[in-house]
Amino acid sequence: MRPPYPPSPERSAELRRRFAEEARSERPDLSTLCLLVGAEADGELDEAGLDAAQVELDRLAGLLPYRPAGPRAWADALRELLGERMGFHGTPGDYQRLESSLLHEVLARRRGLPILLSVVWLEVARRAGAPVCGVALPGHFVVGFGPDEGRVLADPFDGGRVLTGTDAELLVAGATGARLDAAMLRPADPLDVVLRILNNVRAWAAARPERSDVALWAVELSLLLPSHPARLRYERAQLLVQRGEFLGGASELEAYAQVVSAVDEGAAERVRGEAHAARAMLN
């Protein structure tokens, strides 16, 4: 198995308990959840490392000027600090690295996927008192400064470049072929951000069948979120079978079939067939 190496089962159980607790808290903390994802991926990320990452976010926030005047000034201040002085940005090659989805690695490497770089922008800006939010454009995550009317968008993947309306329209058109509409500019909920990060991890692992271990923990963390797609239970069952855990996978498939049967008996019957095939592999 290539690095990063996973934590011990005991450490993993504790991390997952904390992840579920934070996700169900009144105000889930985005940086904490992202760092717990990183610790589940990387057994070398201990408590000192978790604390160090939070301290680094605090340090970066302390380097910002005191309360710039207005959304555009905030966007410019973050771009000058994080994009220019600190060198945070992304490259096409970052999409091929698991580390690009792990906050502690992004803080260390100053490279990452758009959504993780946006988390850095969000957490640094929030600590400094900026009116900031995440904006989950289709296919590309950015950050927004200011209220709904007159919100200024910036692209951390491009070093924090401030986006014009045309820039945002081109990003959406390039990803989906659709036109930009107001619904796409709504602030992203922290738990939705975390689920999107875990979806990226799952996509990375899906392209690398030998890393089904990564796919499994990403699915299992997703299932700990208060709201998640029901189909993730089916994906987990398939991963268990793929990893040779035929009995556990078959049981999960049967449980999922029971849920699906209420809306699609044909699909449920197909899943039951998969469960039967998984049990047959035990012979």
Structure description:
It is a single chain. The protein is α+β, with helices and mostly antiparallel strands and 283 residues long. 58% of the residues lie in helices and 7% in strands. Strands 1-2-3-4 form a 4-stranded antiparallel β-sheet, with helices on both faces. β2 and β3 form a beta hairpin. α1 runs antiparallel to α2, α2 packs parallel to α8 and α11 packs antiparallel against α12. The chain is globular and about 70 Å long. It starts with 8 loop residues before the first helix and ends with a helix. The model has no long low-confidence stretch (mean pLDDT 93).
- Compute the average pLDDT: 93
Largest sheet: 4 strands, antiparallel
Low-confidence segments, given as residue ranges, are: none
Number of helices: 12
Structural class: alpha+beta
* Rg, Å, rounded: 20 Å
Helix content estimate? 55-70%
| Strand line-up of the largest beta sheet | 1-2-3-4
Strand content: 5-15%
* Gap from first CA to last CA: 28 Å
Order of SSEs, N→C? HHHHHHEEEEHHHHHH
For the secondary structure, the number of strands is 4
Shape assignment: globular
What's the gist of this structure?
With 283 residues, this protein is an alpha+beta fold. Helices cover 58% and strands 7% of the residues.
SSE layout:
Elements: H1 9-23, H2 30-41, H3 47-62, H4 71-85, H5 103-109, H6 114-127, E1 132-137, E2 140-145, E3 152-155, E4 161-163, H7 165-176, H8 190-206, H9 212-223, H10 231-242, H11 246-260, H12 265-280
Antiparallel strand pairs: 1-2, 2-3, 3-4
